[in-house]
Write a structure and sequence with these properties.
Helix content: over 70%
Oligomer: single chain
Strand content: under 5%
Shape: globular
Number of strands: 0
Length: about 140
Amino acid sequence: MISYLTGLVLIAGSLALFSRGAVERCASVIIANWIAQFVYNDWAGTFTPWVWFMTIDTLSALVILWRPACRWQAALGITYVAQIVCHFIYAKGGLVQHDYWQVLTNIAWLQLILLGVWGYGSGASRFAVRWRSEHPHKTHNGGLA
């Protein structure tokens, strides 16, 4: 849990603070989702509050999937749909508690990876485009203009 929290702070936290638009919204949703679930889990004292998790994940999916700006955002929203399906399967007895937590943890890491690649990848692309426009390539034609 600590390592996921570190990833959450580094990836989602920095993108929520320094990004704009859809990346900022998705990073903020991931952070708010984790805080809401952690606080409730700690407050309620229950180890598998799947109804609460399903409610928060549904709200998160709605916010992320509301007019997605690109495929990255849609993919991130689909991970929340996968979590909702996981909650239903657990509620019906299709997953034991350990497997339930393992699947949720893997999906949470996938969310951070998607967010990081999308957020930092698009930022790196913008930087590269800006750098190329500020530093045009000079032709090497032997000094002939």
